[in-house]
Binding-protein-dependent transport systems inner membrane component
Amino acid sequence: MNVKSAQKPLTASGPPSDHIAPLLNRSRGRGQIALLIRLGWGVASVSLFAGVWEAVWALGGLNPLLLPPPHIFLADFAAQAQYFMPTDVIGQVSNDTALLSLVNTIFATAGRVLAGLTLGFILSLFCGLAICYFRLFGKLILPTITLLAPISPIAWLPVAIFIFGIGNPPAIFMVFISLFFVMTISTISQIESVSKTHLDVAAVMGATRAQTFYHVILPAILPALFFVLRMNLFGAWMIVLVAEATGVGSGLGQIVMQARNTFNSSLSFFTMTIIGMAGFVFDLLLRNVQKRLLYWIPENRVGGSQ
């Protein structure tokens, strides 16, 4: 009798997965609601900024030739997007062609940013690790890195052009150099701050250097390194625009330079809007990658999400 009564709740309640599935669905639902709330606040923030801008213009406080409000520089998409066409295209272009050229320009700039950030992140991680693990290498390399770190990435632009010429390499190099030194020093600092207790436990358990790095050091330093990477993401966009304006010949930076040379304020603000949207999407994607890689970190501590 006791056995039957003990088994009855199991048969009535079903397998454990029946209890876990609703919890998972509820968690996903909360995540989707939180995402919608963040998007809602983002739309409200941008709308408020644009509304104030439009209100100041409506009251006569802005010259539309110098500071055109959003409804002016966003009104005729084809007229603005035609400036993104290659230089050998002459005449009126259709909206489809203009849109394709705009997308190609955005992807060209985004590709340079992504390539530079990826190279900078990976190489700085290994460089910082080598400095901490190999004493002779650290003594020879760290002083030079500390010496070069304060130099503005813009100062490296002539060097990039001298070495790589005109094209994608100098822009990628500029993004790389803007991240490499800062990330290397940050990697060294984070490795040195890893809990000695964790390292001692790994040593007692017989972990090799590689195992200690992958299972102890790397999980400990990645959260801070991703934060540094995200903070440098916005700087990378600034640097790549400077590089494109002077040493590439294409991309969003080249359009900004064209707007300045022609004193086209509408094109300037239109391009600034595109840059802001592209940077926002980049940051959003980076935060999603961070959440997936750093799955052991609570969501409210990943990427500074609220």
